[in-house]
Amino acid sequence: MRISAALVVLLLVACAAAKTDEERRLAVDEASLVPVELASVAIVPLTGTPVALLRDPEQGRTVPIFIGAEQARAIVIAQRGIAAPRPMTHDLAVNLLDAMGGRLERVIVDELRDGTYFGALEIKTGDSTILVDTRPSDGLALAVRTGARIVVAPAVLEAGSDIPYRSLGGDDVVTALGITVMQARAEVREALELPDQPGVLVSSVRGLAGAAGIQPGALIVAVNGIPPDSPLAFLDLVNATERGAQTSLRFWLNGAFSVVELPTDLATPPAQRRDSL
């Protein structure tokens, strides 16, 4: 009998108090895990295999890891803020955790073994924290819905550093610095009365970016003085920020231009409310 991922989460959370020596254990030292940001979904040329793009602020790079097609769709849907008429599997898993008083703290990708990625969900329930085994792609689909932190083993990042990828085209949605952006189409520009210049449209924001004044509907027209002509260009320009420096963003909102500077590290607390269009 096939059991859905959401039901597995429910059963594991319900039985968490009984789990002792059987709990999931990390394959690497906790201190070695690298915080990353789920930036986007792309595909591998020729094969069309989907990959999740992880922004590694420590190295100023984007690293792809292979994911399933179903999980790729789930990530893109969540990044775009599309609400399904009925809860999909990953939405249901989040709802179950909330209803049972659990919170997804971290998604951990700790191993690549024989071509397969291994991961864990770090779930807090009351005074207890447990690790639940997961496919990393499912974990990432949950993280984008909850704001949970993502940490990855260095070996996983190194293994993915030479995977080629290309964008989804005009459907790209990219998150960096807690800011999710997409292409500013002509009809959206007209509706929002955006200025006629290159830039990417902010669709949602969380963390320091929101506190600094960036809001959904803003048009980011320059990253460190350079106009981003696509969502992936926005990501590349953020990655190009000099190490130790802050990223300068110039944006248009409510009829005026503003400039803010944001750190490139990942200081966003887990499970923070996400503002969106």
Give an overview of the whole structure.
The chain is of the alpha+beta class. The chain has two domains: 5-160, Bifunctional nuclease domain (Roll); 173-276, Pdz3 Domain, CATH 2.30.42. Helix content is 26%, strand content 33%. It has eight helices and 14 strands. The protein has helices at 5-14, 69-80, 89-99, 136-146, 154-160, 186-192, 208-211, 231-239; strands at 34-43, 50-56, 61-66, 102-113, 116-125, 128-134, 149-152, 173-176, 179-183, 200-205, 219-223, 247-253, 256-262, 275-276. The strands form two sheets. Strands 3-2-1-7-4-5-6 form a seven-stranded mixed sheet. Strands 8, 9, 10, 11, 12, 13 and 14 form a seven-stranded antiparallel sheet that branches. The longest helix has 12 residues, at 69-80.
